[in-house]
Fold:
Amino acid sequence: MRPRTRLMIAVSLLLASCSDVSFVDEVTIVNQTEYPAHVEVTNRNRDGWLGLTVVDAHSTSAVAETIDQGEVWIFRFDYLGKHHELVEISKRELERNDWTVEVPAAFEQQLRARGMIRPR
Structure:
């Protein structure tokens, strides 16, 4: 192994060990609606949104190694930038639900009320 490669690996390991960022192994998003949803998450302070995934209609998407948002997680479900729905959930409840979150039915209801055509 080249010395420069060894140095880069050592620096990467050092930075990873010094980081105070923790991760959740996997967060699962269940979408039982007729619309795909772009999913983001933030913490109680709402100091930045982390894009997680786009989950298709009637499907489930698992996101590995998600940054831990702390005691309160706020999920935002968006469709084409036309409508978004927020869900606030405690870390304790996420743990009880095996780190699974559902796209809320209100997401689909609001899109239909606005006359958004369902994708085919």
Residues 21-113 form a domain with the Immunoglobulin-like fold (CATH 2.60.40). The two ends are 52 Å apart (CA to CA). Residues 11-15 have pLDDT under 50 and may be disordered. Strands lie at 23-31, 37-43, 50-55, 59-67, 72-79, 83-90, 100-102.
